[in-house]
Amino acid sequence: MDKEELNEHKVAEGVYGFRTAIANIAIVGGCGDSRDEWVIVDAGVPFSGPFIKRCAERVMGKGKKPIAIVLTHGHFDHVGGLKYLLNQWDIPVYAHKEELPFLTGEKNYLPPDPSVGMGLMSLLSPLYPRKAINLGERVRELPENGTIPEMPDWRYIHTPGHTQGHISLFRDTDKLIIVGDAFITVKQESALAVLNQTKEIHGPPAYFTPDWETAEVSIRKLHALQPRIALTGHGKPMAGSELTAGINKLVEEYDHIVVPKHGRYVH
Ligand SMILES: [Zn+2]
Ligand SMILES: [Zn+2]
């Protein structure tokens, strides 16, 4: 990857975003005590491990390894490359306490709701894996005070609703947010929008969101931070007035534009 190509993936200083088929990952520099280290946020769709490793080596240099992986949540399209990556690198994985049962084989996610969102991705959703993976001792609980080990410039915001232990990562210095699926910038229910990565702000992927009330509280938390740049779990990065207008709209018209009209988890 040459410099120009790399710049296309640069979201902000030290932060790079890459898309694994349908889901994004982030490579974040400026980590560790020395600020020379780096961390990977999320681990992509199944079989994306080798691709993620290649991306990381292109950004950070061949033979270099991250000091940790941080998960926004444990859905299959965010943990798919983990097994491969953890075989390559002996590093810890951090996740929120309430997400741990889904990462240690104890609990499976609730069944997806194919009736919401009106699109091919929704219709196919019963086929998506929802069985808990088991990371065993490799996964560690994030501290309760909001700090993230190895990421001194960052803190996490607990943003449940899409999953119980969902988090978003926030950097105060430039108000950059790595959102996960708390909100996204593509209509994930539509295969065509996903294919074209049509940029448009949306609530969490509907077929996989069981708690719309809590998801609203989480979006309000992120709105209150007034982020300037957002890298979401699905879709292209969004920044500036486009982002501000987008989040304002999500908050103001939540019941109309985010919550599905009916569905398994809509009350
Ligand atoms: Zn998800
Ligand atoms: Zn996702």
UniProtKB/TrEMBL annotation:
It comes from the Bacteria. InterPro entries: Metallo-B-lactamas (IPR001279), NDM-1-like (IPR050855), RibonucZ/Hydroxyglut_hydro (IPR036866). SMART domains: Lactamase_B. Residues 22-234 form the Metallo-beta-lactamase domain. PROSITE patterns: PROKAR_LIPOPROTEIN (PS51257). This is MBL fold metallo-hydrolase. It comes from Cytobacillus spartinae.
